[in-house]
């Protein structure tokens, strides 16, 4: 196997592994729009990275984490509806990033690779970043699994039982931010949320427990990576979108199959 294909496969499998359980919480808590907001803001992080002449992956990670904290603070003020606030931030940060990039005439930027990903361009440094970020998120999810389930099932009851609901919710948002930052290289800014949502939504139909859904989502995501890379290799299609198309195909197939009793 060629090195670039091996790097792409390992990066995609690592991301799919952690996107499964994390995407399950995104589906359960109806946080898809939150993920879209962070993914749109990632492009602003790319622009800041080029402006400061530092790694865009680092600035995207810091930017997504900072935006997650800002969203938690603003949502507690109750001045605006959550979806309105998310819509404003999503489109404002995306547009600001595009405007900032347009002023960088001396820097050649492949904007399409950031918008739609370039999985086959993952190198050793990118792979280390993706594996490290995925490992951090996976360990954090393992430690926070029961508290996250508690606030997802009944947030008020979890608060009565003494759980720090606000901090747990913030931790979940920060984990989503990390995954979006490391996934940008694979599926791009505009397709990141689909990799979190589609496998989890597919697994939800046939799972009997939260753990089954999380594991099923990871397996489906990993299968989508393998199918997407195969399609890209043999048909010369873009790798990131091919992964999402494979995931969408499995979602449709899952809904054609009878639900488990």
TrEMBL record:
Please give the CDD domains that the UniProt record associates with this protein: TM_ABC_iron-siderophores_like (cd06550)
The record's subcellular location field reads:
Cell membrane
Membrane topology for this entry?
Answer: Multi-pass membrane protein
Q: Does the keyword Transmembrane apply?
A: yes
What's the main place this protein lives?
membrane
Keywords attached to this Swiss-Prot or TrEMBL record, sorted alphabetically, are: Cell membrane, Ion transport, Membrane, Transmembrane, Transmembrane helix, Transport, Zinc, Zinc transport
Coiled-coil spans in chain: none
UniProt cross-references to InterPro entries, sorted A to Z:
ABC_BtuC-like, ABC_TroCD
The record's SUPFAM superfamilies line, in alphabetical order, gives: ABC transporter involved in vitamin B12 uptake, BtuC
Q: Where are the transmembrane segments?
A: 6-28, 40-73, 85-104, 125-148, 168-201, 239-257
Q: What does this protein do?
A: Involved in the high-affinity zinc uptake transport system.
PANTHER family registered for this protein in UniProt: ABC-TRANSPORTER METAL-BINDING PROTEIN, HIGH-AFFINITY ZINC UPTAKE SYSTEM MEMBRANE PROTEIN ZNUB
Give the record's family classification: Belongs to the ABC-3 integral membrane protein family.
State the protein's name: High-affinity zinc uptake system membrane protein ZnuB
UniProt source species: Pseudomonas flavocrustae
């Amino acid at each position: 196997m060629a090195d670039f294909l091996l790097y792409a496969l390992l990066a995609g499998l690592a991301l799919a592994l952690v996107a499964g359980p994390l995407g399950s919480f995104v589906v359960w808590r109806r946080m898809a729009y939150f993920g879209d907001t962070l993914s749109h803001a990632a492009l602003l992080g790319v622009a800041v990275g080029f402006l400061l002449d530092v790694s865009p992956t680092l600035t995207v990670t810091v930017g997504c984490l900072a935006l997650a904290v800002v969203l938690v603070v603003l949502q507690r003020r109750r001045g605006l509806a959550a979806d309105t606030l998310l819509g404003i931030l999503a489109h404002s940060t995306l547009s600001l990033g595009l405007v900032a990039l347009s002023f960088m005439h001396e820097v050649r930027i492949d904007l399409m690779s950031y918008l739609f990903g370039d999985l086959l361009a993952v190198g050793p440094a990118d792979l280390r970043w993706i594996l490290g970020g995925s490992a951090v998120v996976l360990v954090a999810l393992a430690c926070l699994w029961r508290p996250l389930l508690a606030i997802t099932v009944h947030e008020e009851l979890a608060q009565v039982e003494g759980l720090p609901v606000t901090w747990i919710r913030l931790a979940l948002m920060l984990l989503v931010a990390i995954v979006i930052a490391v996934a940008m290289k694979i599926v791009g800014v505009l397709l990141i949320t689909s990799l979190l949502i589609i496998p989890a939504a597919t697994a939800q139909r046939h799972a009997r427990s939260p753990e089954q859904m999380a594991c099923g989502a990871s397996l489906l995501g990993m299968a989508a990576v393998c199918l997407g890379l195969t399609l890209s290799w043999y048909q010369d299609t873009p790798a990131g979108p091919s992964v999402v198309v494979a995931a969408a195909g499995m979602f449709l197939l899952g809904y054609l199959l009878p639900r488990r009793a």
